[in-house]
Design goal:
The structure is a homodimer of 329-residue chains. By secondary structure, chain A is α/β, with parallel strands linked by helices. The first copy, chain A, has helices spanning 13-23, 57-60, 76-84, 100-114, 128-139, 155-162, 178-186, 194-197, 212-220, 238-244, 279-299, 321-327; strands at 4-9, 28-35, 51-53, 66-69, 90-91, 117-119, 143-149, 152-153, 167-176, 198-206, 230-235, 250-260, 266-276, 304-306. The first copy, chain A, has twelve helices and 14 strands. Chain A is globular and about 60 Å long. The model of chain A has no long low-confidence stretch (mean pLDDT 97). At the A-B interface, helix 1, helix 4, helix 5, strand 12 and strand 13 of A face helix 1, helix 4, helix 5, strand 12 and strand 13 of B. Strand 13 of chain A pairs antiparallel with strand 13 of chain B.
């Protein structure tokens, strides 16, 4: 059987994660890495595979079954995914929830014009969390769904605190409130405010002579980012920062508290959770599994843009339908 | 839009659960209930719907989009599902894991001959737990999967203790060992014996004058059922039995402890859990959601037997693909 030939477009944390995830799947191989940097400055881990400029993708498209886009959702993917869908089968982890319909339409149009297949917003949220919301709500139509995030590093919030005057280094953890989760698990179906669901923990290395009280005040009152949450600010040394806060853990919980039976009085609780020591490596693993599915759709002659909702679980697995039924059902 | 017309074949706890679950889904209606008992002795909850003998299903098949089989896996479903697949689109919750390939083959053959679609082993294990095993293993190919059950009533073990001499009433709960689950969550990837994963709790109302020590000894040493577990036997009054042990709770956990990254040293933990106050009502809710998917397969002209692995999440939902993308992705 020919291996699925995968191209990686963008070689940051996520791209490196995809490269490593491909190694864990025997039916795939890394075909090429594409970058916007000068290709000769990018060193990858896989021997015998070359790095090219992003602009070379169209001319190399014949040798790529699937291109995994590893850029950012703010500015890269809205442009890159539709553009590359004109020449390749593409998959991305676009995660700006509010702009998904717009992104879907752009990728779908490009795919239909060119006869390719696309798969967007693949990761864990959006992605696996979305799947769990959809499954649980279809099964328990009467109920309430909750999503809690963390404990984990929020890139957006970390960026925001690093822009505060006097902050040399900074990282922000989103932490779910255990007491709120316990109320959900009990079946209370509470209405929870942002403050009741998550707290925010900031660890900061201040510039020398910075006004610590002013930094704290600026952060905890920052609109949109922190003012609606209980936020703690802890000042630490650069050594501690490097030793303790050098990882990108994340995770979270999707919970559906549903009611069934006569008078809808029976409580049924579904909970899905992730505890990830590396957010980009896990997202990469999800992308790679879905790249397998995308390749199968392509082989079946499908076109257009898809999401995780459209993919049957069987298409993610390296196992045959017979093996899945015999061993995992 | 026409409602999906559902027939229920078998009206025990599961069939009653299906009847109630249909009410929670506006796009469905109960068309008929079929029973092996004299139909006039069966009282259902839905006004205007009639009860028929099981043998009338073939002649009424035109008025049924999907028949949900609610019999037992030991003797009912292996016969009924293939038989009814000759005239109807069928869905069952066949749960004898070891015999799934055989059951699949029988239902598939019947479906292909008659041009119908079948969906077997729909519930939570097999069913939702199977899905979570398949998703997590596809995403994290290097790792270990664990399934823990409970706390919940095991019908098979409860039946076994009720056959012991001197036992008037009895119920058995399977209880997952919290310490073992914590080891899995920590990423230890332990090899766990049956005894290390679950304990078994029996509550028994003894016959008057029964030898309690003998009952206990017989149970805890019972081969296959209890000898490989740490089992507790508690004798209670009939009043307590009726007051406390009149429910059918169940649930459990599917966990995937996976490793990613350079040298596969990054731990990634996926956990799915159910806490069900009523096992049959929840299984019924799963069956009803999958009945919607089965009806869509039928409308697309598909035939043959399927499992949960073959069903894309979009087909379970009453929402349109656009709504799903906008609200749940």
């Amino acid at each position: 059987m020919n291996k699925i030939r995968i191209g990686i477009a963008g070689y940051g944390n996520l791209g490196r994660g995809v490269e490593l995830a491909i190694r864990q799947n025997e039916d795939m191989e890394l075909a090429a890495v594409f970058t916007r940097r000068p290709p000769e400055t990018v060193r990858i881990r896989t021997e015998g595979v070359k790095v090219y400029g992003m602009e070379e993708i169209p001319s190399m498209a014949d040798g790529l079954d699937v291109v995994i886009l590893c850029g950012g959702s703010a500015t890269d993917l809205p442009v890159q995914t539709p553009e590359l869908a004109r020449c390749c089968n593409v998959i991305d982890s676009f995660d700006t929830h509010a702009r998904i319909p717009e992104h879907f339409a752009a990728v779908d149009a490009a795919c239909r014009e060119s006869g390719h297949v696309g798969l967007i917003s693949v990761g864990w949220d959006p992605g696996l969390f979305s799947l769990n919301r959809a499954y649980a709500e279809a099964i328990l139509p009467v109920g309430k769904t909750y999503t809690f995030w963390g404990k984990g590093v929020s890139q957006g919030h970390s960026d925001a605190i690093r822009r505060v005057e006097g902050v040399k280094r900074g990282i922000q953890y989103t932490v779910p409130v255990e007491a709120a989760m316990e109320r959900v698990r009990r079946g209370d179906q509470p209405d929870l405010t942002a403050r009741q669901k998550h707290t925010r923990e900031c660890y900061i290395v201040p510039e020398e002579g910075a006004d610590l009280q002013k930094i704290t005040d600026t952060i905890v009152n920052m609109p949109n980012y922190f003012d609606e949450y209980d936020t703690t600010v802890t000042f630490i040394s650069e050594e501690e920062f490097d030793a303790v806060h050098n990882k990108m853990p994340h995770g979270g919980f999707v919970m559906r508290s549903g009611m069934t039976g006569e008078g809808e009085t029976t409580h049924q609780m579904v909970e899905y959770s992730l505890r990830l020591d590396s957010n980009p490596e896990f997202t990469a693993s999800v992308l790679v599994a879905y790249a397998r599915a995308l390749n199968r759709l392509k082989e079946r002659g499908e076109t257009g843009c898809k999401t995780v909702f459209d993919i049957a679980p069987v298409d993610l697995s390296p196992l045959s339908p017979e093996e899945l039924r015999a061993h995992l059902l």
